[in-house]
Amino acid sequence: MLSNYHTHTSRCCHASGADSDYIAAAISSGYSVLGFSDHCPWPFTDWFSIRVRMHWSELPDYINSIHTLRDSNRTALTVLCGLECEYFPNHISTLRYMSSLTDYLILGQHYDTTAPSCAFVGDTADLSMSRKYIDQCVSGLSTGLFSYLAHPDMFLLPYNEFTPTLASLCRELCRAARELSIPLEFNLYGLRKQTKSPWLGYPSGLGYPCHAFWRIAAEENCTAIIGVDAHSPDALRDPELPLLASMYLNALNITLVDHI
Ligand SMILES: [Zn+2]
Ligand SMILES: [Zn+2]
User: Fold this and answer.
1) 151 Cα: distance to centroid of ligand 2 (angstroms)
2) Dihedral sign of CA atoms 187, 175, 102, 136 in order
3) Which domains occur in the chain, in start order?
4) Distance 181 CA to ligand 2 centre (A)
5) Which pLDDT does position 203 carry in this prediction?
6) Which of 14, 87, 105, 108 is most buried, with most CB under 10 Å away?
């Protein structure tokens, strides 16, 4: 049985389809659990808040919509309402509030700050930026608020070469996740983007999921969870991709978690 806890909605401005279309796609592809985890809104209304996420005022509609779909599809599918959030220590009270409203949170550390000048983790092959990314992920996971770490290897995306310094950053992150018993996500959105890179202007670096990262995750006895990271209902209509991903992780002897 398939499960997926990483599903977006059109509210984030870079995903498409009605909420109900994601449900229909999941049911027709044989999913037993579909968790929505759209990009979390923030209660301030500046550039950071509105760029790639729902507006704060849309949060009640998001939760109501997912709860309504949960109730009307109970016999076919378990539907959960979560959020994908960055971790910023000065906004911990907002994150706690988000946790109280939802079934679960996942950590997706896409940006380094909430300032207009913030940097996207996947854009810059810069070691100080990567150092900060690891620290923010480890601190975020340590709060106990997050059920798993989304696309942990996203920071490798812009690098062209997997250096010993990058390897040690990966190992540090993997060790922390294992010590906290938090699964690492094998992200299928990143995998799909890799296959399209020449035509979409996608960065030509290591990309994610990155084999070198997952070899280290295996050495460190990490657990993994497969996340579709659906930004369109069609992403859920390809049940072969999670199957291939699970075969890949099995071959690395990584224990797969399909339930949070
Ligand atoms: Zn997204
Ligand atoms: Zn993400």
Assistant:
1) 7
2) negative
3) 2-256 (3.20.20.140)
4) 20
5) 56
6) 108
Ligand 2 midpoint to CA 108 (Å): 5
Query: Are the C-beta atoms of residues 109 and 140 closer than 8 Å to each other?
Result: yes
Ligand lying closest to the C-alpha of residue 54: 1
Distance CA 119, CA 74 (A): 41
- Cα separation, 233 vs 23, in Å, equals 8
pLDDT of residue 192: 87
With a cut of 50, list the residues of the chain below it in pLDDT.
none
| Global model pTM greater than 0.85 | yes
Angstrom distances, CA of residue 97 to CA of 42, 62, 91, 254:
11, 15, 10, 33
CA of 8 to the centre of ligand 1 (A): 7
Q: 40: CA distance to ligand 2 center in Å?
A: 10
